[in-house]
Structure formats: structure tokens, C-alpha cells
Amino acid sequence: MPTERAQAIAARVEAFVRDRIIPYETDPRRDHHGAPTDALVDEMRAHARAAGVLTPHILPDGSHLTQRETATVLIASGLSPLGPLACNTMAPDEGNMYLIGHVASPELRARFLTPLVEGRARSAFFMTEPAELQGAGSDPSMMRTTCRRDGNHWVIEGKKCFITGAVGAQVGIIMAKSTEADSAGGACLFLVDLPDPAIRIDEVPNTIDTSMPGGHATVTIDHLRVPADQLLGAAGDGFTYAQIRLSPARLSHCMRWLGCCIRAHEIAVDYANRRIAFGKPLIDHEGVGFMLAENRIDLQQAELMIDWAAGVLDSGSLGTVESSMAKVAVSEALMRIADRCVQVMGGTGVTDRTIVEQVFREVRAFRIYDGPTEVHKWSLAKKIKRDWKAAHAD
């Protein structure tokens, strides 16, 4: 059961998204990849700031809502694909704020976290690398980007891809493998100001999703010099810090896209009740009614899965296994929901007359982002094997 605090915040967020942000869904201010422009984002955030719902998951004293409370609020912000952008609960910023807030020094938080929390800046997390270079994708241990000390600085060299929001970001978190003897093989995380001439945008490919400003860029990092005091945490512990970000971030994705699928289901239900075919409303046809019933079941199960995994994180656990299970279960359930919404609405479902077709595209991408379903299943299978061996050890 959500706390009264979370319910109150979520109610304000939901009212704001439904009343002020949903009308922006037809706003033509989009880049050539179909993503909202920064001008559109800034305008929506100004409304959110005035309504008191900007960055609602972080309280005025800088503390975070619990993960369970965050779920209630982020689901509400996700009722429109534009809602998380307007309320500043969108990836990658929400996850980056969480990481900086938990790991960075007070000085780095003041410099890099404050503008993110205030909605004055966007950020990017530089981890994934191109497959053609055999770089880090779902397996960060394959990282080819390196960092080495040079006096009072670290020098970073490498190539990254699918870096969400890199174009137009002002804050970057870069992961690189250290070549130094005291942290050889370990990863380091660095906070950097963007743009920087040493970070070159090579391309921004068109992708199936269109909700995130800045796209998913491929970048080259060429002799980037970062002051030593911008190292995030300790050298060599980057993989550990990344998990602090990735586990709750996977869950946050589930929260936001659950909100979108709730809305898509609402649209499909409305269509099925109004559309008459073969002498009666579509919903009275068993094939359609059963699809909507299955949606209700999947929506409820997704919400319960999120609540369970959020509770594990709130207990103080890193929640890696639980967030993986939730990512698989929720992303696959939301895909089924989005697909049924399209099917129920027929030809209208594949047009841009509603957000249903966009939700279908975005959720399809979600099954890959933050780790494909198959990678999480593989990781879970390894855990099952380890548990079996431990239980049967002599």
C-alpha cells in the first residue's frame, strides 16, 4: 500500500500529466529523429516547476522517496511518454541523479547534481560500446575504453555507442577500464562537463523509440583529460558503483512504461466500447473482451512485481537479482499489453492518432535497453546453478 506521502505526490503528478502534458503529445516540436526538442522539454518543465511537480521523487531536503514510493510517483509520470521528461523523472537523468547522490562527494554533488535536480541540465551515461569493436554491451567486463593517470588528471580514450541523450547533455558519467597498477582491470567512473571537444559525436542512428531527447549517439573519446577530483568514488570500483545505478534504474524503467501502458489500455478500452462492429460494441466480442481482460491481469501482475522488487531495494539489498527478474517479467508483460492495445484498435492502432503505436515502439525497445531479456535470464540461470551447488556442497 503506498504511503500517504507518495499518494499525495502521485495525485499531483497524475493531474499535471493528464491536464497539462497530454495536450503536448501532438506538439510538432520534434527533431529529425522524432524526439522532443530541448525547447519543448524546457517549456514543459517550466510548467512542472510552477505546478510543484518537477523532480517529485527527490524531496526539498535532497533525500529520495523510498523505491516503493518512487514507483507510485513514476507510474503517474509515465501516463504520457512526455510525462517523465516534463517532471524530470526520465532516463538517463533519473538514474544518474540517483548514482551521483549516493556516490559523489559534496563538492561534486553541488556542481553536477544540483542542475540535474533543478531540471536545468540533461545528462548521459557512457558505458555501452560498439559490437564491431568487441566492446562492452551487456557484458561490461569487455570494456575497451581505458583511463590512465597523467599527473593531476586522468586521460580517457575509447568509443561508446547507444549513449542516450549525449547530444545536448551538460553532464556526463563516463565508465572506463583503468590501466593503472593499483586498479588494473577495474573500472572507473568520471563526472565530466559536456560538451567537450575531446568527445566527438560520430552518429545518432534512427531507432524504433522516439521519446528521449538527444537520441542514442555513437561517440569517440579522444584523449579526454579529466581532473583527478572528478573521479566518482574510488578508482577500480566502477563496476560496483554501476550496479548502484543499474538495479534501481531498471526498476524505474518498469515504473514509467507501466504508466504508459496503463494509458494505452485506457485508450483501447475507450475505443472498444465506442466502436460498433457486427451489431455490437467491440468489447462485447469475446476475442476483444478477452484481450482487454488479459491486459488487466498483466497490468496488475506488473505492478505487484515492481512493488516486490522495490521493497527488496528498500530493505538495503542491492537487489540485482530481483531487479533482473522484474525487468524480464514487466517488460515482457508490457509488450503483451501494448501489442493487444494495437490489435484491439485495428488500423487506428498503428496510426499516430493516439499514443498507442508509440507505446508499442517504446516498450519494444525497453525489452533490450538496460539488458535484454535473454541476458537477464542467463544471469538468473547462473544464480540458480550457484545456489544448487552451494546447497549440495559436501
Structure in words:
- The protein has about 400 residues and is an alpha+beta fold.
- The chain folds into three domains: about 90 residues, no CATH class; about 110 residues, Butyryl-CoA Dehydrogenase, subunit A, domain 2; about 150 residues, Butyryl-CoA Dehydrogenase, subunit A, domain 3 (Up-down Bundle), CATH 1.20.140.
- Helix content is about 50%, strand content about 15%.
- It is built from eleven helices and nine strands.
- β2 and β3 form a beta hairpin.
- α1 packs parallel to α3.
- The termini are far apart.
What does this entry show, briefly?
Its cofactor is FAD. The protein is α+β, with helices and mostly antiparallel strands. Helix content is 49%, strand content 14%.
CATH domain class name of the largest domain: Mainly Alpha
Rg value = 21 Å
- Shape type: globular
Domain module tally: 3
Strand element count: 9
End-to-end Cα distance, whole Å, is 44 Å
Percent in helix: 40-55%
Order of helices and strands: HHHHHHEEEEEEEHEEHHHH
Q: So, CATH architecture of the largest domain?
A: Up-down Bundle
Would you tell me the overall average pLDDT? Answer: 94
> Looking at this structure, what is the CATH superfamily of the largest domain?
Butyryl-CoA Dehydrogenase, subunit A, domain 3
Number of helices: 11
Structural class of the helix and strand makeup? alpha+beta
Strand content: 5-15%
